[in-house]
Amino acid sequence: MHTQEHLQKIGVIGLGLLGADIVALILSRGLNVVAADLDSDARQQLPQRVSTALSELIEHGGAKQGDFDGWQDRLQIENSCAKFQNCDFIIESVAEDAKIKAAVFSSIEEVVTADTPVSTNTSGLPLSDFQQQLKHPGRFLGMHFCQPAYAQPFMEIIRGEQTNDSTFGAAHRLGLMLGKEPCLINRDLPGFVVNRIGYAMYREAANLVAEGVSDFASIDNAVRNTLGVFMSMTGPFRWMDISGGPALYGRAMKTIWPTLDNSDSPPEFIQEMIDQNDRGAVSGKGFYDYQSGDGELWDKAFRQHVWKLLKLRREEEGQEDFPDQ
Ligand SMILES: NC(=O)c1ccc[n+]([C@@H]2O[C@H](COP(=O)([O-])OP(=O)(O)OC[C@H]3O[C@@H](n4cnc5c(N)ncnc54)[C@H](O)[C@@H]3O)[C@@H](O)[C@H]2O)c1
C-alpha cells in the first residue's frame, strides 16, 4: 500500500519538454527525484531548467524566497532507470513512441518491486496495450500532465483495463501532494477527457467554417469572449448549474445536438492544410499567417497569461465571498 509517507522518492524517466517540468514540480513540493534520460544534453540542462522553473514559481506563482532551498540535494540524475529500485512511484515521460515506451517499461520492471506504481505521461497511446506486455499490469496507469507542469493544476489520472485500486489510489494521492486538481478517469479512451472535449469543439468550429457559417477570427472571438471567460472559473457542469440549470440546458440539448457535426474526418480545407504540413505559428502558415518570431511571441504570451490566470484564481479563492468549487 503506497501511503503518503511512502511517496517520498519519485523516479522520472524522459527529461524533455514535459519531463523537466515534472521534475521541477516534484522538487518544488519537497519530494526527492531520481531523474533519468539517455541523452546527455537533457541531463546536463536539467538543473538549469529546474532552477528557471522554481524562480518562475517565486516570481509569479505565489512561492517565497527560500521555499525551495536545498532542492539540489533532493535531485539525483542518471542515464537510465537502473537506479529506480528505491523509488516509490515512477513517472515515464519519454518520446511519444509505443516501441520506445514499451522498452522503457520493460527495463523499469527489471528494477522496481512488483507493486511500485508505474505511470505514463502518454497523450494518446492506449494504456491497455502496454499492460498486455507488462509482467505486473495492475500497477500501471496513465498520469497526464500539461505545460507548464510545475504551475498548471491540470492532471488526468487514467485507469487502464487492468489497473488495480491501490495503484489508482497512490496516483491520486501523489497528484494531490503535487498540488494538482486531478481528473479521475475510469476508462482508457483516446484523448482521455480533456482532449475529447477539446476535439468536440474543434470539430464543430471547423464545420462552421466549412459550411460557410462563419470565419476563423469571428469564431475565435466569440469563443474567447464567452466560453473562454467562464471556463477559467467553472467547468461545463458548474456553468450550466449557475446559468439556467440542467432543465433549461437539457431542453436546448434536444434541439441543438441533432444539428451538430458528427463527421469522422476533418473537412477538405483542413485536409489541404495537412497535405501542406501547415504547422501554424511554427511554420508561418496555419488558420492565420505568421511572421518569423511570432511562434515565440505567442508562446511567451501564453505563459504570461497562464501565470496571470493562476494569480487571479489564488486571489479569488482567498476571498471570503468566493464560493467553494
Ligand atoms: N509536450 C507536451 O506539451 C506534452 C503534454 C502532455 C504530455 N506529453 C507527453 O509527454 C511525453 C514526453 O513529451 P515531450 O514533449 O517532453 O518529449 P521530448 O521529445 O521533449 O522529450 C522526450 C525525452 O525522452 C528521452 N528519451 C527517449 N527515449 C528514452 C529512453 N529510452 N530512455 C530515457 N530517455 C529517453 C529523450 O532523450 C528526450 O529527452 C510524451 O509521451 C508526450 O506525448 C507532452
Structural write-up:
- The protein has 325 residues and is an alpha/beta fold.
- It folds into 2 domains: 4-185, 3-Layer(aba) Sandwich (Rossmann fold), CATH 3.40.50.720; 194-318, N-(1-d-carboxylethyl)-l-norvaline Dehydrogenase, domain 2 (Orthogonal Bundle), CATH 1.10.1040.
- The chain is 46% helix and 10% strand.
- It contains 12 helices and 8 strands.
- It has an 8-stranded mixed β-sheet, with helices on both faces.
- Helix 5 (165-177) links the parallel strand 7 (156-159) and strand 8 (183-185).
- Helix 1 crosses helix 2.
- Residues 13-19, 36-39, 42, 93-96, 100, 104, 121-123, 144-147 line the site of nicotinamide-adenine-dinucleotide (NAD).
**Count of the separate structural domains:** 2
Range of strand content: 5-15%
**Assigned CATH superfamily of the largest domain:** NAD(P)-binding Rossmann-like Domain
Assigned CATH architecture of the largest domain: 3-Layer(aba) Sandwich
Which structural class fits the helix and strand makeup?
A: alpha/beta
How many helical stretches?
12
| Ligands, deduplicated | nicotinamide-adenine-dinucleotide
Question: Which range best describes the helical content: under 10%, 10-25%, 25-40%, 40-55%, 55-70% or over 70%?
Answer: 40-55%
Estimated radius of gyration: 21 Å
Shape from CA axes? globular
Largest sheet: 8 strands, mixed
Distance between the termini: 30 Å
CATH class of the largest domain: Alpha Beta
Unreliable residue stretches: none
How many strand segments?
8
Strand arrangement, major sheet: 3-2-1-4-5-6-7-8
Would you list the SSEs in sequence order as H and E?
EHEHEEHEHEEHEHHHHHHH
CATH topology category name of the largest domain = Rossmann fold
What would the average pLDDT be, to the nearest integer? 95
